[in-house]
Design brief:
By secondary structure, the protein is of the alpha/beta class. It folds into 2 domains: about 170 residues, 3-Layer(aba) Sandwich (Rossmann fold), CATH 3.40.50.720; about 180 residues, 2-Layer Sandwich (Dihydrodipicolinate Reductase, domain 2), CATH 3.30.360.10. It is built from 16 helices and 13 strands. The strands form 2 sheets. Strands 4-3-2-1-5-6-7 form a 7-stranded mixed sheet. The protein has a 6-stranded mixed sheet with strand order 9-11-10-8-12-13. A hairpin with a 7-residue loop joins strand 12 and strand 13. Helix 1 packs across helix 16 and helix 9 packs antiparallel against helix 10. The chain is globular and about 65 Å long.
């Protein structure tokens, strides 16, 4: 093994938004691998800022393994410019890491870029707001010579976004991308198809296990899968808006606008509808939540369907995601990508991989999509 001399270290400062399931797991992964990054990549990776929706913890020396206690005891009220005040005090590459599902944070990306922050995000919202907003980010990336990485927008740690990007960038004609886009809903319907327990119990288990978004309705409504479809559609060169997507919402109307607390208290109301769908299956069929991107006809669809158990989607286990990419080179036999599509550990590790990619790119040349 070849090690990099420590006197050639590149200082990287991380400013992390979100300290929930994914964010806290990422923090621990960074701290545990700190020595490895120094020795293997010549990168001194320090977390100097942490923020949730109300509080912020700042430490230019880098937070320690006791960060949870420090956040409870030493954090301050979060202000709009909290990170900017500190980031200007030292000469280091700055990476803003968004481990939230917040629209408010996503809308701040142009401001972050203007303040010379590279961005790594698991948050799909910025890439699925208006086409004008999407284009603005790309303009700023060029202007500021910064990086923007978002592999975890689709498939957690699976290389879906990069594969679509590389195929399109190489001049390949993409035809379609189909599959089980949500590891959360894969987990839920894999269990629901096999186990004799109420749908609502599986949803609560998935939430507690960190498989779903903080509000499970983001998954059950189809919006999360729809955003993933739109991310890939735009990577494939299509200029579409979120409203162009056909979405089947699995949440009954009375619970769609309820508070999160009320939804979780009344989630059992979904049981009867989903049980009826399960009982209507034919022999050898299972329920799967599918996303379909027809690149040629610019059509995007999210729906719950019955599929044969012997089909690839029907054989999924756990929180596996499954993607079939059809293109000129993969017309008869699609490019298939399969693996864990949800979970705090794989998502956090995907974010960390993007952080290292940005850190190494900052030593060389501009990298962006």
């Amino acid at each position: 093994m070849t090690y990099v001399k420590l006197n050639n270290l590149k200082n990287i400062h991380l400013y992390i938004f979100g300290i929930g399931n994914v964010g806290s797991t990422l923090i621990d992964q960074v701290l545990q691998s700190h020595t490895f990054f120094r020795q293997q990549h010549g990168i001194d990776l320090s977390i100097v800022g942490l923020a949730n929706s109300k509080r912020v913890l700042l430490d230019l020396e880098g937070i320690s393994k006791n960060w949870k206690d420090d956040f409870d005891n030493l954090s301050e009220a979060r202000e709009a410019d909290s990170f900017y005040k500190v980031s200007s005090l030292c000469d280091a590459t700055k990476i803003a890491v968004d481990a939230t599902a917040s629209k408010e944070v996503a809308q701040c990306y142009p401001e972050l870029l203007e303040n010379n922050f590279n961005i790594v995000t698991a948050n799909k919202i910025a890439n699925t707001l208006s086409q004008d907003f999407y284009d603005l980010i790309r303009v700023l990336l060029i202007k500021k010579n910064l990086c923007f990485e978002y592999e975890t927008n689709v498939g957690a740690g699976l290389p879906i976004v990069q594969s679509i990007h590389d195929l399109y960038s190489s001049g390949e004609q993409l035809f379609a991308v189909n599959g089980v886009f949500s590891g959360s809903l894969s987990y839920i319907f894999n269990r629901f198809s096999e186990e004799q327990i109420p749908f609502s119990e599986i949803v609560i288990d998935a939430l507690k296990g960190g498989y779903t978004e903080p509000d499970p309705r983001e998954d059950l409504s189809g919006n999360d899968v729809a955003r993933k479809l739109l991310v890939l559609a735009r990577e494939a060169g299509l200029k579409l808006e979120f409203d162009d997507i056909e979405i089947q919402n699995l949440v009954i109307p009375s619970l769609r606008t309820a508070s999160l607390y009320q939804f979780l208290e009344e989630v059992k109301q979904l049981d009867a509808v989903l049980q009826e769908k399960k009982e209507s299956l034919k022999e050898g069929e299972v329920l799967r939540h599918l996303g379909e991107l027809d690149v040629l006809h610019k059509k995007l669809k999210v729906s719950l369907k019955a599929v044969k158990k012997e089909r690839p989607a029907g054989q999924l286990k756990g929180s596996d995601g499954f993607f079939e990419i059809y293109s000129e080179s993969y017309a008869a036999n699609p490019l298939v990508i399969k693996g864990a599509g949800a979970g705090k550990a794989v998502t956090a590790r995907g974010l960390l991989a993007d952080i290292i990619k940005v850190s190494k790119a900052s030593q060389e040349v501009l990298v962006f999509r």
